[in-house]
Inverse folding.
């Protein structure tokens, strides 16, 4: 799946998720993600002057400045980029159009409703989570709610800057503009929302994994295996030898046990190598 989330960064390039093959399930997933994102925007973030990154953030800035509806700018700014993807860049999908339409219509429909909280800090937290999970859900099912990253990929071939640098520069300009247009306090709340959107997108794409796999390369693998069994009550097994002296030991543990596992391993062999695979 090549879709990327573009509110903030290229983390999506490192994430892969399996989605159902049914076209209906993909359509419903994109619609649900777009509606969840519009709830976060209109019922939490926008009433408090809180913006995020990407074209969504630029749309919010224009909505504040012109006092027009957010949904209008979401549609007007993203549609040309989606059409550019179709004719010049590639990566166009009908699910991207669907996600954009539902996000814009959802913002229009929810705009008359009052904010669900009068406190900007909870609004930034809940709104960021709602928007992030919505964006991640849409991407997970093959859609997109922000069309700017493909544009940055295209510009990368013409400029010396990387796609990552272009995205971060664009978002920095948005937040600097937010300080000037809506004030420092709202910009501070926007940064909080930014972080929560960023993390919730990653979480919705990766899923919640309680356990992780750990690979340990050490000369004292047998001693480490016994210590892990004694202190953590975890079984471990040998993999192929990494060298004539080192052996690879594999085990699974809870995320909360990672620090204790590392301590046990390093106490046995300070020169051991630990690789964590989530």
């Amino acid at each position: 799946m090549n879709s990327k989330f573009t509110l903030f960064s290229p983390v999506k390039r490192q994430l892969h998720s399996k989605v159902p093959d049914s076209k209906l399930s993909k359509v419903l997933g994109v619609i649900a993600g777009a509606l969840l994102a519009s709830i976060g925007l209109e019922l939490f973030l926008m009433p408090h002057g809180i913006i995020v990154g990407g074209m969504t953030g630029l749309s919010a800035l224009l909505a504040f400045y012109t006092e027009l509806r957010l949904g209008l700018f979401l549609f007007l700014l993203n549609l040309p980029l989606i059409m550019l993807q179709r004719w010049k860049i590639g990566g166009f999908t009908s699910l991207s159009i669907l996600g954009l339409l539902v996000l814009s219509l959802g913002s229009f429909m929810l705009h008359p409703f009052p904010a669900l909280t009068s406190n900007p800090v909870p609004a930034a937290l809940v709104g960021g989570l709602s928007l992030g999970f919505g964006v991640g859900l849409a991407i997970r099912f093959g859609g997109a709610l922000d069309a700017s990253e493909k544009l940055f990929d295209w510009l990368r071939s013409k400029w010396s800057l990387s796609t990552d640098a272009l995205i971060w520069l664009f978002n920095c300009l948005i937040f600097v503009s937010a300080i000037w247009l809506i004030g420092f306090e709202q910009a501070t709340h926007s940064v909080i929302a930014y972080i929560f959107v960023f993390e919730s997108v990653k979480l919705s794409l990766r899923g919640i994994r309680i356990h992780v796999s750990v690979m340990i390369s050490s000369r004292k693998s047998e001693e480490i295996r016994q210590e892990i069994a004694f202190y953590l009550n975890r079984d471990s097994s040998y993999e192929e030898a990494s060298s004539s002296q080192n052996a690879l030991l594999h085990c699974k543990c809870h995320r909360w046990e990672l620090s204790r596992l590392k301590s046990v391993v390093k106490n046995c062999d300070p020169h051991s190598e630990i690789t964590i695979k989530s």
About this structure: The two ends are 19 Å apart (CA to CA).
